[in-house]
């Protein structure tokens, strides 16, 4: 044990822990904020695959805390576990940033990686290391901070945990704001692309800082030795009870009041009683994963939904992944409102709003959030263009001639195309071969930018560029531009002219340079603009109601659920309940993965309705389970066993005296019998 240094009655060591937690949470949530867009627009995976891999990663992040707690309590101790797994964590973040470097395998420098499997492999390795690191240290850091206080420092310890969880929300809020801005920049060695390396690199740097800060306080920490993990005791006791019951399944063995009573041959009755209380709570956990199934889709489905919306708020432009910041902002707002206003008001109205009733309401609010998301999706679908299916291809016909042309493409009907006009038609493919449709390449960029292509009708070559970027426009290829007003310059090497256009989110345009173009002011207003795809018109503000409902559901469900769980279980079993709670989050994310890969609903709004319906059904089941649940006082139950233990020595002594008297009388009878014989 190290000598403790204090400042203002607080251990100095906790300041290192608080800074460490802030940096680590910034690193995790910053990386996670842009993750689904990285899958969708860098790897060019479809929405379902991007969603599945995202939720598989989140599920793994909530499974590894169990492993971290066992390693820390049974083997390495909290300090070494945090150090070792933080190193793994930092390496994972660095590998993730490297995987996003576009030029890593772009040998021909065309802006597209030549070997995407290398990038995917690095990303999957990085995500595995991150999940192992962030999950492994999750149960250790807060507990390690609590170890720094003496028993009499209850007020200081309480303040520490408040600041600790404030740092979690602060890191989450700031990173979710900052990393999407970094992602929106353009960077690269040979070609300029969306800057995912920077978006992942900054979280990686913060994780390295987190590790350095934590190590810097090493000499001031109180490092408690491993004392064994209660979860292992619980698992061993349950395993022994099941095995013993199976070995004595014959009807000749008397039944016992509870199946856990089969463990009383080896384990203390108090431990068995404590595990019984925990099992009652864990039974209520069975329906809970469905809530997390909906809740964690904020970072996947809802972010992808935002890519098809308009993020302009006056002079402020929000990136699709920045909408996630609404959640931590609302949490910081709603928690005190619920505690100080809503719950007291309900109590004054005479309504018994028990914890389980609150959790039921939380589930219902989450279901309503997805109904709201479905309504927004229906509005979005009405504005989206019709892209070619897998058996179709899209053909763009451009007439740069000076007169009208008659076009015939069997089996289409003949049509006339005027001078300097564009026509899009859908053509069926022979033998139903999959097509690399325009939507695949376009959607990989345009959802957070606009796309434009220039068709040159002049007899000589010209160079195209736009202000703020020296990039030359390749012939007959789409170039993706940030939202806002852009000034274009056309030059033939001697003369030049400029014109400006304003772009929204998700639009696509074809600019025709006519043969009569004069390189004069504003290019003589001769540039013909054709709108291939209209920009997004449904505003991101319409997502605020669904974010409000899901966050209100989180506050009512999650905070209340943990409080209820802790109140219904013994103090030494809180780690077991924490593991059970995290396990429900993991299962919930696995459900998203299964539905995304198997359901394959043609319309996204239908999937939202499906999830909402499933949660409503689970909500009804949970309310029935809650109705039959009887609240207990764990301290009182433990006290009963304590009193029994105190009485046992007296009872044993009494039983021993009675047994000795019985043996003495039996001995006298035997002696008397021998005398008579």
Quantity of strands, as a count? 17
Shape: elongated
DSSP strand content:
5-15%
Number of contiguous helices: 18
Helix content percent band: 55-70%
Largest sheet: 4 strands, mixed
> What structural category characterises the helix and strand content?
alpha+beta
Mean pLDDT: 84
> Largest sheet, order of strands side by side?
13-11-16-17
Distance between the termini: 76 Å
Low-confidence stretches: 432-446, 655-660, 662-677
**Radius of gyration from the CA trace?**
33 Å
List the helices and strands and how they pair.
Layout: E1 6-7, E2 10-11, H1 13-33, H2 35-42, H3 47-76, H4 78-99, H5 116-147, H6 154-184, E3 186-187, E4 193-194, H7 196-216, H8 230-247, H9 269-284, H10 289-295, H11 301-306, E5 312-313, E6 316-317, H12 326-348, H13 355-383, E7 392-399, E8 405-407, E9 415-417, E10 421-428, H14 438-446, E11 450-456, E12 463-466, E13 479-481, E14 484-491, E15 496-503, E16 508-513, E17 528-533, H15 544-567, H16 574-598, H17 604-627, H18 634-676
Q: Key terms for this structure?
A:
disordered C terminus, 677 residues, alpha+beta, three-stranded antiparallel β-sheet, 17 strands, 18 helices, elongated
